[in-house]
UniProtKB/TrEMBL annotation, chain B:
It is found in: Cell envelope. InterPro entries: Cytochrome_c-type_ET, Multihaem_cyt_sf, NapC/NirT_cyt_c_N, NapC/NirT_cytc_sf. One of its GO terms (biological process) is anaerobic respiration. Gene3D superfamilies: Di-heme elbow motif domain (1.10.3820.10). GO terms for cellular component: cell envelope. Its main location: other. Keywords: Electron transport, Heme, Iron, Membrane, Metal-binding, Transmembrane, Transmembrane helix, Transport. This is Cytochrome C. The keyword Membrane applies.
Length: 494, 212
């Protein structure tokens, strides 16, 4: 009853415009607001050979058998074979103790029971995390590092393209791997165990911020650090025991109100907003690009998805569109950046007022626009000019300014934008936009001018001169006590 | 009467025949035994060039290099223990010799590698039919301790209806998948890549009868 009242209240507060969003989202996700119960008939699991697996693996690798015994899978009678069984024709099938199995349990395999989660996850920025960077990888991983770094680092987060050798073994250069965009031998993309630690697959564990930390930490995406330094993280740390993390359903505002975690805002159910395994669906901006774009989400009839920047030609429903992999898909539905923002905002509204939410979002948007206008676009234009004038070689990272530029948007710029998006003042400024500015003025511009030489006016300063926010450079006489050398204090001291 | 009848049968020529036959039989048994040892030696097997490919990998395995100094020869694993069984295996094994002479050019490393899976499947089937007798000649299942915590328990409690080869494959020679999940295409591509051959070469080599 309480839940119903809460929902009704929320419904009235959000007004008519939001109702449309709810309907759209509900339809898009084609699922209820709560964790999807498995619909498959239980007769389909409880493979008869499973008992033997457990008997031997309780001795051969007792840790994983014990973890499984603690799992909801065990409680429901789901055993090793239910997940690991394979078809003879599967590229990675093998015979193990007389059974045809595969080591890798792909999202497609999990999707035999967890169909809704599988469909949502396919095409998401998580599932595509390797495919999106595969072509760019060699320039950084192989040249600057070495191919061996892929398995040890890049692939750990982005996933690997798992190779099956002719002798049936999984290529050790690509496996083990639980990167979230792993391309599996069955062609499916992703790894459920990236977040859901095997073999326990605990709901509570996946709802913790720690589920995201392996990848969302460090200089280029310090989301763990940002969350911990934010008010959300502060409240979470103090009230973690009130988070109801083990609850079968976990709707923000109903099953818990103490604090949000990563999952709450990016995936979780909140009020009437349904949960989703498409982690990027609520993201109005791309934040990890040289210049941020507001982005449309295109959902195709076959379940594939694609991001389109605002300003690109936006297709209509039913239209055909060529995708990044070259295939043509039919557009099923589109979510405009505003709609995606509205979805994210619905989570905020479970705890915050509408005006509070809107004002926060406008602060965040302004930071992204500042980065774009003042640093992202001008730096990109300067670099483009240097490449066009053949003052730089096409090979990335063989000239110092390429590292400077890369860090400007990929590390420092991402920190600033993520910091503003999740309310860490330190990351927005000292770790973020301050370092962007320092890099831009003290490294990037001097390096670019040196490379441009006689053409510096045309290739560098003309670009900067056209940007209003850099005009302060034209007045060298503005004194301030900030460095301890302000003119009036200086004079007084004398 | 019977006794005198028997004695009347044991005439001088009969005694001579029995002695010669007995000695001849012992010599023959001795010969078979010696032949078994001779024909089980690595040097004998690898006197055909095609067998040296298997030997190279074997020399990296624990059955060649063990801390205890025990070294299993080709025949220790691939010829059954016991005089009759070993003799039979050597007779059947002679088909390898005829294949070497009249079959594909197994001395070619590519041809050899392409045909390896079928050899592996046959060898596994051979082990299975004999309940891994040659393994068991050295290894006593009840005595296996292993290095991991529960290896002994697994060999006591989890082996019903199984024989050594069911679990222990790809120990010595180049790894080959189980016959039930073997993918010829993937194997051919691997061999082509290994020897720097154009894709499709392997399939052509397998389809083509041996050039005269």
């Amino acid at each position: 009853m309480f839940g119903v009242i809460q929902m009704r209240k929320g419904f009235e507060t959000i007004g008519g415009q939001w109702v449309g969003v709810l309907v759209l989202l509900g339809w898009m996700l084609a699922g209820p607001a709560l964790a999807e119960p498995v619909k498959l008939d239980p007769r389909h699991w409880g493979h008869e050979a499973g008992e033997k697996c457990v008997s031997c693996h309780s001795k051969a690798s007792s840790g994983l058998a014990s973890q499984w015994r603690e799992s909801a899978h065990h409680a429901a009678g789901v055993n090793c074979m239910d997940c690991h069984q394979a078809e003879r024709s599967d590229p990675d099938s093998m015979v193990h103790e007389g059974q045809i199995i595969a080591t890798i349990v792909s999202p497609k395999d999990c999707g035999r029971c967890h169909q809704k989660e599988y469909e949502e996850q396919q095409g998401s920025v998580h599932a595509e995390a390797f495919a999106l960077i595969e072509a760019r990888l060699p320039a950084l991983a192989d040249h600057v590092g070495g191919p061996i770094m892929r398995a040890a680092s890049c692939d750990q987060c982005h996933g690997s393209r798992v190779g099956v050798q002719g002798d049936g073994r999984l290529d050790p250069a690509t496996w083990p791997n639980s990167g979230i965009g792993r391309i599996n031998p069955d062609g499916s993309k992703g790894s459920c165990s990236a977040c859901h630690g095997r073999h326990r697959f605990s709901k509570a564990q996946a709802r913790e911020p720690e589920a995201c930390v392996r990848c969302h930490s460090g200089p280029d995406s310090p989301d763990k650090e940002i969350f911990e330094a934010s008010k959300h993280g502060m409240v979470y740390a103090a009230h973690r025991h009130e988070m109801n993390l083990d609850a079968p359903e976990w709707v923000a505002g109903r099953d818990y109100t103490a604090a949000p975690t990563c999952v709450t805002c990016h995936m979780g159910a909140a009020g009437k907003l349904p949960s989703t395994h498409d982690v990027g669906m609520r993201n109005a901006w791309s934040l990890n690009s040289p210049v941020s774009n507001r982005q449309f989400l295109v959902v195709f009839e076959d379940g594939a998805k694609m991001e389109l920047p605002e300003g690109a030609e936006i297709p209509k429903r039913g239209a055909e569109l060529t995708r990044l992999d070259g295939t043509v898909g039919q557009v099923k539905t589109l979510a405009a950046p505003d709609r995606r923002r509205q979805a994210m905002s619905m989570v905020c509204l479970e705890c915050h007022a509408k005006s509070f939410t809107e004002s926060f979002m406008s602060q965040f948007d302004a930071v992204v626009e500042l980065f774009n206008d003042k640093f992202g676009r001008p730096a990109r234009d300067v670099m483009a000019g240097l490449y066009a004038a053949e003052l730089l070689t096409p090979t990335p990272f063989d000239e110092p300014i390429e590292f400077t530029y890369w860090e400007l948007w990929h590390d420092e710029g991402a920190r600033a934008r993520h910091g503003a998006s999740m309310m860490s003042p330190n990351h927005a400024w000292w770790e973020g936009m301050y370092v962007v500015g320092r890099n831009f003025y003290a490294r990037f511009l001097p390096e670019a001018r040196a490379i441009a030489g006689e053409r510096a006016d045309e290739l560098v300063d003309a670009v900067i001169g056209a940007v209003e926010s850099h005009q302060w450079l034209n007045d060298p006489g503005q004194s301030s006590p900030i460095l301890g050398f302000a003119r009036d204090t200086h004079e007084e001291a004398e | 009467m019977a006794g005198s009848g028997l004695f009347s049968v044991i005439t001088r020529p009969v005694v001579i025949a029995l002695v010669i036959g007995g000695i001849g039989g012992m010599v023959f048994i001795g010969f078979l035994n010696e032949f078994h040892h001779f024909a089980s030696r690595n040097e004998f097997c690898t006197s055909c060039h095609s067998m040296t490919f298997a030997e190279t990998v074997y020399q990296q395995s624990a059955h060649y290099n063990s801390a205890s100094g025990v070294r299993a020869s080709c025949g220790d694993c691939h010829v059954s223990p016991g005089l009759l069984a070993s003799t039979w295996d050597h007779v059947v094994g002679a088909t390898d010799f005829f294949k070497q002479l009249f079959g594909e050019n197994y001395d070619d490393p590519v041809i050899n590698a392409l045909h390896l899976p079928e050899s592996a499947f046959m060898a596994r089937e051979w082990f299975r039919k004999r309940d891994s007798a040659s393994c068991r000649y050295c290894h006593v299942q009840e005595a296996i301790q292993g290095e991991r915590t529960h290896t002994a328990a697994i060999h006591r409690e989890e082996t019903e209806g199984k024989t050594c080869i069911d679990c222990h494959t790809n120990l010595v020679h180049r790894p080959v998948p189980d016959e039930r999940t073997f993918k010829r295409d993937a194997w051919n591509r691997m061999i082509e890549e290994e020897f720097g051959l154009e894709p499709g070469t392997a399939d052509r080599l397998l389809a083509k009868p041996r050039p005269e």
